[in-house]
Amino acid sequence: MANEVILLDYWVSPFGMRVRIALAEKGIKHEYREEDLRNKSPLLLQMNPVHKKIPVLIHNGKPICESLIAVQYIDEVWNEKSPLLPSDPYQKSQARFWADYIDKKIYEVAGNNWTKKEEEQEAAKKEFIEALKLLEQELGDKIFFGGDKLGFVDVAFIPLYNWFRGYEAFGKISVYKECPMFSAWANRCMQIESVSKSLPDQDKIHDLIVELKKKYGFE
Amino acid sequence: MANEVILLDYWVSPFGMRVRIALAEKGIKHEYREEDLRNKSPLLLQMNPVHKKIPVLIHNGKPICESLIAVQYIDEVWNEKSPLLPSDPYQKSQARFWADYIDKKIYEVAGNNWTKKEEEQEAAKKEFIEALKLLEQELGDKIFFGGDKLGFVDVAFIPLYNWFRGYEAFGKISVYKECPMFSAWANRCMQIESVSKSLPDQDKIHDLIVELKKKYGFE
């Protein structure tokens, strides 16, 4: 059977970026379809009727929703090249734990950095840095979370890179000063083609943050 | 190597019940340790320093946190008996999707049924029933979500059974009238020993809900 792979996505979605990186790591040919989130395509609504969200990976007509589930699916189906999850069940459980931590904790506290009002930002910043430091500890002296090679946790986490640089630019927080190991790790990830070509241009993200801050009144 | 398995848990936790059912399904001997959540044990804080929550499965001294991750771990390590996840990657991704839906959606909207004030309860009830109906659709005419046998989604979902019966008792909502297929499925699950012996007595849950409603003023 021919492998027809379509990705319904939106350029700035860190969740979409995860799936893009996994597809690129495995070298899977696919059609990328940019969605207009204010006017979602009938295909998106049909393929993800529950959440109606991108990204959706469509493999031979069948949808896989939720980014971490899609990345695991890609890893299981295209298992000959660039394994993302370790084969050992314990190591695998730990990779899943940290990816889950990124979804449950990091996204929440990272978002607070630019949506909270001035007076709440100090607390938001502190919580954010503490949450990042836990991940730095988990990285330890490894090159990547996956060891010598990019793994599941790296794929889950690196899409936040550009957003963090956005915070930097707005002068509210220096991720690089506070978490130098995170910074060094992110730079190593960005050297990998599957990552760099899957992440959008930093200036475009910066402009978007400016626009969103204005639109929603977070100044 | 001997398999030393310890479960740090709390009797009423639906997340803990998932791990209990998985251990029972596989017939894994283990030591159950009830935690006092107001005075957590040093072992719990050491084994789950990130979230400091039960359940924690400890296998030969190493912790696995987060219930769905622990259930997957159990399924992968003790893989000779009672498989919980399908082996086919697509079917596996769908089981993960629905288990994730239960965590993200069902727990949230179910909780609203007894924490919201009177005037908000009608909307909460409607949302809850709609969320359940999506799961009923997914079940379709299968015996269990896992097909002929208990599977990952069944294990993720059935711990809510007693709580739903609690809503019934309080007369706010008739889960059984609104979702008869859910009711029939839950009854089938409760016929299975690994489930029935892992779920607490219904009267104890009822008493707990009464106590919590009083304590937090949800009347």
TrEMBL record, chains A, B:
The protein's Enzyme Commission number: 2.5.1.18
One GO biological process term: glutathione metabolic process
Family: Belongs to the GST superfamily.
CDD domains on file: GST_C_Tau, GST_N_Tau
Catalytic activity: RX + glutathione = an S-substituted glutathione + a halide anion + H(+)
Name of the protein: glutathione transferase
Domain GST C-terminal: 88-216
Gene3D superfamilies per the UniProt record, alphabetical: 1.20.1050.10, Glutaredoxin
Pfam family for this entry, one: GST_C
A GO cellular component entry from the record: cytoplasm
Class in the EC hierarchy, top level: transferase
GO function term, MF aspect, one: glutathione transferase activity
